[in-house]
Amino acid sequence: MAHQYANKQEALLAKVKGKTGRISDKTHEEHLKLYTGYVNKTNAILKEIEEVSKVLDPANPAHANQIFSTLRSLKVDFTFALGGVVNHEIYFSVMGGAGGPATGKVADLIQRSFGSFEAYRKDLKATAISARGWAWTGYDPQTGLLFNYLGDGQNSYLVWGVKPILALDTYEHAYYADFYTNRGAYIDEFMNCVDWDEVNRRLG
Q1: How far apart (Å, rounded) are the C-alpha atoms in residues 65 and 71?
Q2: Burial (Cβ within 10 Å: 0-12, 13-18, ≥19) of residue 54
Q3: How many structural domains are present in the chain?
Q4: How far apart are CA 70 and CA 72, in angstroms?
Q5: Where are the beta strands (DSSP E) in the chain?
Q6: Are residues 64 and 125 in the same domain?
Q7: Across the strands, what pairs with 169?
Q8: d(CA 180, CA 22)
Q9: What is the pLDDT of residues 116-155, one digit of tens each?
Q10: Which of 186, 176, 4 is nearest to 95 (CA)?
Q11: In whole angstroms, what is the distance from residue 4 CA to residue 174 CA?
Q12: 176 occurs within a structural domain
């Protein structure tokens, strides 16, 4: 059987419950229902891919074709579903902390990459306001520096080789119930509850 992804909804909610200021527990509870949907769809698509593989014929355009085909549809939608899993797991895991200026190794990298924590914070906020879906802080081993990346969808990933160490969900469902259209205030509140120990753990 194809690999199946675990649903970490309960653990992710426990990580943030009561620890994110004006980003309410109710918002997290509803948000994590969407995450569960991504887990379920990821696993369902994997099972369908496994079934297709039993009869797969690369010469059959119904199976494999760049305009429209069974395998193309499944694999494109798989990246969207799995992106929804991974993005949300990073997002919820890096919340529930004390916020404030970064600490540890990531603080040194922020200084080298942006010049100051305040410059990093401003760049991340502007990136998140510019994004239609996600903003990530990622470590690029080629440069040895951090960069704030922008994504418009669950499968608008970072560049190859970059390690995402912080994810910020900018879809309306992440903040509208608590902040309405004030995305900037939501981003400020997110920064007030970042768990820098977890960010450092992800940095490795």
Answers
A1: 8
A2: exposed
A3: 2
A4: 6
A5: 134-140, 145-151, 163-169
A6: no
A7: 134
A8: 12
A9: 999 999 999 999 999 999 999 999 999 999 999 999 999 9
A10: 186
A11: 26
A12: yes
Residues linked to residue 145 through DSSP beta bridges, in sequence order: 140
Q: Other C-beta atoms within 10 Å of 61: how many?
A: 13
Tokens of 21: 């200021």
Model pTM score: 0.97
What is the tens place of the pLDDT at every residue in 48-71?
999 999 999 999 999 999 999 999
What's the CA gap between 149 and 170, in Å, rounded? 13
Tokens standing for residue 35:
């995450």
Q: Which residue has the tokens 């922020």?
A: 110
Torsion sign (Cα): 170, 176, 181, 185: negative
CATH number at residue 172: 3.55.40.20
Q: Residues 110, 146: contact at Cβ < 8 Å? A: yes
Among 56, 110, 61, 81, which Cα is nearest to 4's? 81
Tokens representing 27 are 């918002």
Structural tokens at position 171? 């879809």
Question: Is residue 75 located within the same domain as residue 154?
Answer: no
